[in-house]
Write a structure and sequence with these properties.
Two copies of one chain form a homodimer. By secondary structure, chain A is mainly alpha-helical. In chain A, 70% of the residues lie in helices and 5% in strands. A three-stranded antiparallel beta sheet of chain A has the order 1-3-2. Chains A and B meet through α3, α4 and α7 of A and α3, α4 and α7 of B. Chain A binds a DNA duplex through α3.
Chain lengths: 214, 214
DNA sequence: AATCGCGTAAATTTCGAAATTTTCTTGTAA
DNA sequence: TTACAAGAAAATTTCGAAATTTACGCGATT
């Protein structure tokens, strides 16, 4: 028998698998099947899937069960534009309210991110640094909006960021040298505009960073 | 025994009770207690509450159970500002993309709303028209953003609108003659600005309509 | 009086099976 | 061949109870 797994771990494992597109878009998620992988009952899986549907990583319909979120050009566009809206507003508010701690946190997050990115750009291939980069990228974007003072905006952004990742990882793209070189410049542009508290420039930088997904 | 109630009805009943603030903010929602009112098992209630937590009407914490959403001046302010953000963006996009059908639907929704509001304002008391007004108000605001072309924005707005209602109904306010006279003017201002496709004016009108909740 | 620890009560989560609903398959008629 | 219907299989939901975790009250100690 599988060595008893804690429920939070099941949630975490399924979340990661969903965000890594290890389930095909629209694929049915049957508690009775997933039950086998983890040593628990189908109801526990159902419970976890209901919670994941709150984030938007899975879709739930009464009497129809669960599915991995659908993917389409329209869906990706929708998610991207919504993310731009939230990230702009969150950053705008942070620039307005954020103090030195916000600036320091943002600079630190960017420094870490930039360090990883230059290393990847040198080699030309993310390789095993992919997970490190993933975390650092997330930290940077959350730092941006962290001083906005709106718990609801942050929570909603958190959900949309997860769905964004889920949609984009399935999109094969060449994570080559050029890709990361471009990303580096874009993150730098966002950082500079944010620290300069230049709303117009910041809005443009955020859009430029995400427009490749439209 | 209570005459067998369908699960969707339980969901709907709890949703309405939550939005009518029939549970105190932060009040614990115990499946084992609620089970009595409806003729079902505690697990069914748990299921429904998990789904309601997706909308944001109830808060869920692992091993701690469910609570009706907390209420505070900060929470109300947060929700209101977020609603302003979404309603502005949704309306902006609708003004950009919406055609004649959008205009017609919006005009119709406002006509119905305005009819009910003038009747209430004449009497000075909502009375039993309150439910009618509630529905019409909701229809009007959803009409505004209906042509935005973003399913995610509409769904998120739907959630935040429900939470907004939940927060505000508990705020005793005098729904007197003056209140409805003001509301009538505000809705008219939003309608006019939207039909004129005047973004600046529309943003201002939406803010003016909701600023009393800040 | 305040704090800590222990034991009891209460609440939450998990389970496996039964009941219900949906989906699929197969057969029949137009 | 298509459409429809009936039956079987599969999936989802619901249930009541057991297991686990958390919350509470009470007494002892500092």
């Amino acid at each position: 028998m599988t060595p008893r797994i804690e429920t939070p771990d099941i949630y975490e494992d399924l979340r990661v698998r969903l965000m890594s597109a290890r389930f095909a878009p629209g694929e049915k998620l049957k508690p009775a099947e997933l039950q086998g992988h983890y040593g628990c009952s189908a109801n526990t899986i159902r419970d976890v899937l209901l919670r994941l549907s709150k984030v938007g990583l899975v879709e739930f319909e009464m009497q129809k069960g669960f599915r991995a979120s659908e993917s389409s050009p329209e869906a990706r566009r929708d998610i991207t534009l919504f993310r731009v809206l939230l990230e702009r507003e969150g950053t705008r508010l942070s620039m307005q309210k954020g103090g030195t701690e916000w600036e320091a946190g943002l600079a630190a997050a960017h420094h870490k991110l930039s360090h990883i990115e230059t290393r990847i750009a040198r080699v030309g291939d993310p390789g095993e640094d992919m997970r490190l980069w993933s975390n650092a990228e997330k930290e940077f974007h959350f730092s941006l909006i962290s001083a906005c003072g709106s718990p609801i905006l942050i929570e909603t952004y958190s959900n949309i960021y997860a769905r964004f990742r889920q949609q984009m990882v399935s999109q094969e793209r060449d994570f080559g040298e050029d890709y990361f070189r471009a990303i580096i410049a874009e993150h730098k542009a966002i950082l500079d505009a944010a620290l300069a508290r230049d709303e117009i420039r910041c809005n443009a930088a955020i859009y430029d960073h995400l427009k490749r997904n439209l």
